[in-house]
Known about the structure:
By secondary structure, the chain is an alpha+beta fold. It is built from eight helices and 13 strands.
Amino acid sequence: MKIKKKSIILCIIILALVISNVFFLKLYIREQRILKNALIPSLVNDYFTNKKNVVNYLIQKENYSVNFELESGGINPYNLYFKTLEEYDIFRMKNSNKKDVPVVFQNPFYPNGCESASAVMLLNYIGIDITLSNFIDNYLEKNSVYESDGERYGPDPSLTYAGDPASNNRGWGAFEPVVARSITKVLEAYQKDREFNLLLSEYDCKPLYFLAAENYPVIIWVTIDYQEANEIYNWRSYDGKYTYTYPKNSHTIVLTGMDKDYYYINDPLKNTKNVKVPKEQLEKSFDSMGRQFISLKHIDINFY
Protein backbone atom coordinates (compact mmCIF):
# COMPACT_ATOMS: atom_id res chain seq x y z
CA MET A 1 0.00 0.00 0.00
CA LYS A 2 2.86 2.35 0.88
CA ILE A 3 4.57 1.53 -2.45
CA LYS A 4 1.38 2.30 -4.37
CA LYS A 5 1.00 5.59 -2.48
CA LYS A 6 4.61 6.53 -3.27
CA SER A 7 4.03 5.70 -6.96
CA ILE A 8 0.99 7.96 -7.09
CA ILE A 9 2.93 10.81 -5.47
CA LEU A 10 5.82 10.28 -7.91
CA CYS A 11 3.43 10.34 -10.87
CA ILE A 12 1.87 13.55 -9.59
CA ILE A 13 5.31 15.15 -9.26
CA ILE A 14 6.33 14.07 -12.75
CA LEU A 15 3.05 15.36 -14.20
CA ALA A 16 3.50 18.69 -12.42
CA LEU A 17 7.01 18.99 -13.81
CA VAL A 18 5.82 18.26 -17.35
CA ILE A 19 3.00 20.81 -17.11
CA SER A 20 5.33 23.47 -15.71
CA ASN A 21 7.91 22.81 -18.44
CA VAL A 22 5.26 23.11 -21.13
CA PHE A 23 4.05 26.35 -19.58
CA PHE A 24 7.51 27.88 -19.44
CA LEU A 25 8.29 26.68 -22.97
CA LYS A 26 5.16 28.42 -24.29
CA LEU A 27 6.07 31.52 -22.30
CA TYR A 28 9.60 31.48 -23.77
CA ILE A 29 8.29 31.13 -27.34
CA ARG A 30 5.83 33.98 -26.76
CA GLU A 31 8.56 36.25 -25.42
CA GLN A 32 10.81 35.44 -28.38
CA ARG A 33 8.03 36.40 -30.78
CA ILE A 34 7.45 39.65 -28.90
CA LEU A 35 11.18 40.39 -29.03
CA LYS A 36 11.39 39.73 -32.77
CA ASN A 37 8.35 41.86 -33.52
CA ALA A 38 9.76 44.67 -31.42
CA LEU A 39 13.22 44.43 -32.96
CA ILE A 40 12.34 45.09 -36.59
CA PRO A 41 10.81 48.56 -36.07
CA SER A 42 13.79 49.52 -33.89
CA LEU A 43 16.18 48.65 -36.70
CA VAL A 44 14.99 51.46 -38.90
CA ASN A 45 15.01 54.24 -36.29
CA ASP A 46 12.18 56.52 -35.22
CA TYR A 47 12.12 58.27 -38.60
CA PHE A 48 10.96 55.16 -40.42
CA THR A 49 8.55 53.83 -37.80
CA ASN A 50 6.41 56.89 -38.51
CA LYS A 51 6.03 55.96 -42.18
CA LYS A 52 3.20 53.80 -43.47
CA ASN A 53 2.73 50.62 -41.51
CA VAL A 54 5.03 48.39 -43.53
CA VAL A 55 3.68 45.24 -41.95
CA ASN A 56 0.08 45.95 -42.95
CA TYR A 57 1.22 47.07 -46.38
CA LEU A 58 2.59 43.63 -47.27
CA ILE A 59 0.91 42.41 -50.41
CA GLN A 60 -0.48 38.89 -50.02
CA LYS A 61 -1.02 37.01 -53.28
CA GLU A 62 -4.21 35.39 -52.07
CA ASN A 63 -5.76 38.84 -51.73
CA TYR A 64 -5.51 39.56 -55.46
CA SER A 65 -8.94 39.49 -57.03
CA VAL A 66 -10.46 39.25 -60.51
CA ASN A 67 -10.00 42.49 -62.48
CA PHE A 68 -7.20 43.48 -60.11
CA GLU A 69 -6.18 47.12 -60.39
CA LEU A 70 -2.72 48.36 -59.43
CA GLU A 71 -2.27 49.78 -55.98
CA SER A 72 -1.86 53.41 -56.96
CA GLY A 73 -5.13 54.92 -55.80
CA GLY A 74 -7.13 52.14 -57.42
CA ILE A 75 -6.06 53.40 -60.85
CA ASN A 76 -4.55 51.06 -63.43
CA PRO A 77 -2.06 53.22 -65.40
CA TYR A 78 -1.83 50.59 -68.13
CA ASN A 79 -5.60 50.54 -68.62
CA LEU A 80 -5.36 46.77 -68.52
CA TYR A 81 -7.10 44.20 -66.37
CA PHE A 82 -5.89 40.78 -65.31
CA LYS A 83 -8.28 37.93 -64.65
CA THR A 84 -5.73 36.02 -62.58
CA LEU A 85 -2.53 36.70 -60.67
CA GLU A 86 -0.69 34.54 -63.21
CA GLU A 87 -1.68 36.92 -66.03
CA TYR A 88 -0.47 39.82 -63.93
CA ASP A 89 2.85 38.03 -63.24
CA ILE A 90 3.43 37.38 -66.94
CA PHE A 91 2.78 41.02 -67.80
CA ARG A 92 5.15 42.31 -65.13
CA MET A 93 7.89 39.86 -66.18
CA LYS A 94 7.74 41.18 -69.72
CA ASN A 95 8.20 44.69 -68.34
CA SER A 96 11.08 43.92 -65.98
CA ASN A 97 14.11 43.35 -68.19
CA LYS A 98 17.47 43.84 -66.50
CA LYS A 99 18.77 47.40 -66.75
CA ASP A 100 22.32 48.02 -67.95
CA VAL A 101 23.49 49.93 -64.87
CA PRO A 102 27.24 50.74 -64.57
CA VAL A 103 28.88 49.00 -61.61
CA VAL A 104 30.60 51.24 -59.04
CA PHE A 105 32.93 49.18 -56.83
CA GLN A 106 33.31 50.66 -53.34
CA ASN A 107 36.55 48.89 -52.42
CA PRO A 108 39.37 49.40 -51.67
CA PHE A 109 38.96 53.11 -50.89
CA TYR A 110 35.46 53.16 -49.35
CA PRO A 111 34.84 49.89 -47.46
CA ASN A 112 31.76 51.44 -45.82
CA GLY A 113 30.60 53.54 -48.75
CA CYS A 114 27.88 51.29 -50.19
CA GLU A 115 25.18 54.00 -49.97
CA SER A 116 27.32 56.41 -51.97
CA ALA A 117 28.44 53.79 -54.49
CA SER A 118 24.81 52.84 -55.14
CA ALA A 119 23.88 56.51 -55.55
CA VAL A 120 26.69 57.02 -58.06
CA MET A 121 25.49 53.98 -60.03
CA LEU A 122 22.06 55.59 -60.32
CA LEU A 123 23.54 58.95 -61.30
CA ASN A 124 25.88 57.40 -63.88
CA TYR A 125 22.90 55.50 -65.32
CA ILE A 126 21.05 58.75 -66.08
CA GLY A 127 24.16 60.27 -67.68
CA ILE A 128 25.78 62.24 -64.85
CA ASP A 129 29.55 61.66 -64.96
CA ILE A 130 30.41 61.75 -61.25
CA THR A 131 32.95 59.65 -59.37
CA LEU A 132 32.51 57.97 -56.01
CA SER A 133 35.16 60.13 -54.36
CA ASN A 134 33.57 63.31 -55.73
CA PHE A 135 30.16 62.26 -54.39
CA ILE A 136 31.48 61.42 -50.90
CA ASP A 137 33.80 64.42 -50.58
CA ASN A 138 31.43 67.08 -51.91
CA TYR A 139 27.84 65.89 -51.62
CA LEU A 140 27.53 63.44 -48.72
CA GLU A 141 27.01 65.00 -45.29
CA LYS A 142 29.02 63.10 -42.66
CA ASN A 143 29.50 63.28 -38.89
CA SER A 144 31.81 61.30 -36.62
CA VAL A 145 30.99 58.50 -34.20
CA TYR A 146 33.20 58.29 -31.10
CA GLU A 147 33.44 56.65 -27.69
CA SER A 148 33.70 58.45 -24.36
CA ASP A 149 33.44 57.02 -20.83
CA GLY A 150 32.18 53.70 -22.11
CA GLU A 151 29.43 55.29 -24.23
CA ARG A 152 29.24 55.63 -28.01
CA TYR A 153 28.10 58.98 -29.44
CA GLY A 154 27.10 59.88 -32.97
CA PRO A 155 24.62 61.62 -35.30
CA ASP A 156 21.10 60.72 -36.31
CA PRO A 157 21.63 58.39 -39.34
CA SER A 158 18.43 59.80 -40.84
CA LEU A 159 20.12 63.22 -41.04
CA THR A 160 23.79 62.53 -41.81
CA TYR A 161 26.09 59.63 -42.58
CA ALA A 162 27.38 58.21 -39.28
CA GLY A 163 31.16 57.88 -39.34
CA ASP A 164 33.63 57.77 -42.22
CA PRO A 165 32.84 55.68 -45.34
CA ALA A 166 36.58 55.45 -46.06
CA SER A 167 37.26 53.71 -42.73
CA ASN A 168 37.19 49.94 -42.24
CA ASN A 169 35.78 50.10 -38.71
CA ARG A 170 34.63 53.69 -38.16
CA GLY A 171 31.93 53.85 -40.83
CA TRP A 172 28.38 52.91 -39.87
CA GLY A 173 26.05 54.23 -42.56
CA ALA A 174 22.99 56.32 -43.37
CA PHE A 175 19.30 55.91 -44.06
CA GLU A 176 17.38 56.90 -47.17
CA PRO A 177 16.86 60.67 -46.46
CA VAL A 178 20.62 61.31 -46.24
CA VAL A 179 21.35 59.72 -49.61
CA ALA A 180 18.28 61.37 -51.17
CA ARG A 181 19.51 64.82 -50.13
CA SER A 182 22.96 64.09 -51.54
CA ILE A 183 21.51 62.96 -54.88
CA THR A 184 19.35 66.11 -54.99
CA LYS A 185 22.47 68.26 -54.53
CA VAL A 186 24.15 66.47 -57.44
CA LEU A 187 21.10 66.93 -59.68
CA GLU A 188 21.11 70.64 -58.89
CA ALA A 189 24.86 70.99 -59.42
CA TYR A 190 24.67 69.25 -62.81
CA GLN A 191 21.46 71.12 -63.74
CA LYS A 192 19.43 67.93 -63.96
CA ASP A 193 16.95 68.74 -61.19
CA ARG A 194 14.31 69.84 -63.72
CA GLU A 195 14.69 66.64 -65.73
CA PHE A 196 14.32 64.03 -62.99
CA ASN A 197 12.04 63.45 -60.03
CA LEU A 198 13.27 61.64 -56.94
CA LEU A 199 11.12 58.67 -55.87
CA LEU A 200 11.35 57.75 -52.19
CA SER A 201 9.89 55.16 -49.84
CA GLU A 202 9.08 58.03 -47.50
CA TYR A 203 6.13 58.81 -49.77
CA ASP A 204 5.36 55.43 -51.33
CA CYS A 205 6.39 52.36 -49.35
CA LYS A 206 6.15 49.61 -52.00
CA PRO A 207 7.00 45.91 -51.83
CA LEU A 208 10.15 44.84 -53.66
CA TYR A 209 8.09 43.00 -56.27
CA PHE A 210 6.60 46.26 -57.54
CA LEU A 211 9.92 48.12 -57.56
CA ALA A 212 11.65 45.46 -59.65
CA ALA A 213 9.06 45.86 -62.41
CA GLU A 214 9.75 49.57 -62.75
CA ASN A 215 11.38 50.82 -65.95
CA TYR A 216 14.33 52.24 -64.05
CA PRO A 217 16.86 50.94 -61.48
CA VAL A 218 16.21 51.39 -57.76
CA ILE A 219 18.54 51.81 -54.77
CA ILE A 220 17.42 49.57 -51.90
CA TRP A 221 18.58 48.92 -48.33
CA VAL A 222 19.24 45.28 -47.40
CA THR A 223 22.02 43.46 -45.51
CA ILE A 224 25.44 42.33 -46.70
CA ASP A 225 24.38 38.66 -46.94
CA TYR A 226 20.84 39.53 -48.14
CA GLN A 227 19.34 38.04 -44.98
CA GLU A 228 16.94 39.63 -42.50
CA ALA A 229 18.43 42.29 -40.24
CA ASN A 230 18.40 40.96 -36.68
CA GLU A 231 21.03 42.90 -34.72
CA ILE A 232 21.58 46.58 -34.09
CA TYR A 233 24.20 49.10 -33.07
CA ASN A 234 23.31 51.74 -30.51
CA TRP A 235 24.76 55.16 -29.90
CA ARG A 236 23.65 58.29 -28.12
CA SER A 237 23.21 61.74 -29.61
CA TYR A 238 26.06 64.16 -28.99
CA ASP A 239 24.08 65.87 -26.24
CA GLY A 240 23.12 62.51 -24.69
CA LYS A 241 19.38 63.14 -24.98
CA TYR A 242 18.54 60.52 -27.62
CA THR A 243 19.51 56.98 -28.52
CA TYR A 244 19.87 56.00 -32.16
CA THR A 245 19.84 52.49 -33.56
CA TYR A 246 21.41 51.22 -36.77
CA PRO A 247 21.25 47.69 -38.23
CA LYS A 248 24.41 45.62 -38.17
CA ASN A 249 25.50 44.44 -41.63
CA SER A 250 23.38 47.12 -43.29
CA HIS A 251 24.07 47.30 -47.01
CA THR A 252 22.83 49.31 -49.98
CA ILE A 253 22.57 47.92 -53.50
CA VAL A 254 20.92 48.71 -56.84
CA LEU A 255 17.97 46.63 -58.00
CA THR A 256 18.21 46.17 -61.78
CA GLY A 257 15.44 43.66 -62.63
CA MET A 258 13.81 40.31 -61.96
CA ASP A 259 12.59 37.11 -63.52
CA LYS A 260 10.33 34.33 -62.26
CA ASP A 261 12.71 33.14 -59.51
CA TYR A 262 15.34 35.83 -58.99
CA TYR A 263 15.96 39.51 -58.48
CA TYR A 264 18.97 41.03 -60.22
CA ILE A 265 21.21 43.53 -58.46
CA ASN A 266 24.41 45.54 -58.74
CA ASP A 267 26.24 45.12 -55.43
CA PRO A 268 29.03 47.69 -54.70
CA LEU A 269 30.98 44.86 -53.02
CA LYS A 270 30.85 42.73 -56.18
CA ASN A 271 32.42 44.08 -59.33
CA THR A 272 29.82 42.30 -61.51
CA LYS A 273 26.56 43.44 -63.12
CA ASN A 274 23.19 41.85 -62.46
CA VAL A 275 24.02 39.41 -59.67
CA LYS A 276 20.99 37.18 -59.05
CA VAL A 277 19.47 36.63 -55.60
CA PRO A 278 16.47 34.38 -54.78
CA LYS A 279 13.31 36.45 -54.60
CA GLU A 280 12.03 35.42 -51.19
CA GLN A 281 15.46 35.92 -49.61
CA LEU A 282 15.92 39.47 -50.88
CA GLU A 283 12.32 40.43 -50.08
CA LYS A 284 12.77 39.45 -46.43
CA SER A 285 16.00 41.42 -46.19
CA PHE A 286 14.43 44.48 -47.83
CA ASP A 287 11.35 44.32 -45.57
CA SER A 288 13.48 43.97 -42.42
CA MET A 289 15.30 47.19 -43.33
CA GLY A 290 12.09 49.19 -43.51
CA ARG A 291 11.61 49.05 -47.29
CA GLN A 292 13.87 52.02 -47.94
CA PHE A 293 14.40 52.84 -51.60
CA ILE A 294 15.40 55.68 -53.92
CA SER A 295 14.98 56.01 -57.65
CA LEU A 296 15.06 58.67 -60.34
CA LYS A 297 12.26 59.12 -62.86
CA HIS A 298 12.54 61.29 -65.94
CA ILE A 299 9.71 63.81 -65.76
CA ASP A 300 8.82 63.37 -69.45
CA ILE A 301 8.28 59.63 -69.18
CA ASN A 302 4.99 58.32 -67.84
CA PHE A 303 6.30 55.54 -65.63
CA TYR A 304 4.15 54.51 -62.68
